[in-house]
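# step 3/5: fold
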Amino acid sequence: MTILITGGTGKTGLVLARLLHTVSKRFLVTSRSGIAPAPFKAVRFDWLDQTTFENPFHADSDIDRVYLIGPPIFDMLPPVKVFIDLAISKGVKRFVLLSGSQGEPGGPNTCKVHQYLLDIEVDYAVLRPTWFMQNFGTDLRSEIKEHDHVLSIVQDGRIPFVSTEDIAKAAFEALDAKESPNSDVLLVGPKLYSFDDVANILSKTLGRKITHKRISEDESKSILIQWAGLEHTYADYLVEIQKNTALGKEEEAFNAPEDRKIVGSHTLEDYITDNKELWVQE
């Protein structure tokens, strides 16, 4: 049987593909271009173009499990629901959804997809990671490299940044398990960090002063809309997550009972040290 990876060239999807390839598991990668890094096989799939939803099943009729990474829109349930229903009709038995640490079933965004999986009583797992440490090397890279600061509205809130490698490992285990988990689980890193801590680690590693620039909620929303290209409702949602983080919400995830979380092995210090060339000024 075959595992389908939506978002197969993204932050966690590509790492998952490498894990599956290493142990010779059958899988198929999707991307909007239909292209993936060698040696992976990919098909064109676009959440905002439902005419592409059949493509994975034309390419491989044995798909029975799906790693779900929804589209970058706030109200993602309508297109994702259509695809889930189609996938079930094609023989898919299990879905592993990537959600977020602050997301409960029935809430907005990925939480609606979580609720839908519960409603239709299909085999599932929902992964709820905290903030990705790799974002410092992607979304937040230019601010660090070019301006020597990290921006946030989280004040002194602490975050157990988690690695995409640890997320992909959890996805692999949920997809490969003989019995479906049929539960959700928090994914956290092994240590808590404030953004001041992050700035200090970057400063020590790079040999120059990096500061934590505390910005307003309006400034954060403006960045999300103007630079990240998000719709207003999605930007509001992400600002709310950051506000909750300032109030200790991510630290609550870190302190959750052992049976409600998976603690990754990768630390933020290791990630920054191993990838310091990303922020070196030329």
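# step 4/5: annotate
Strands lie at 2-5, 27-31, 42-44, 63-68, 94-98, 123-129, 149-152, 183-188, 211-214, 261-263.
# step 5/5: archive (pending)
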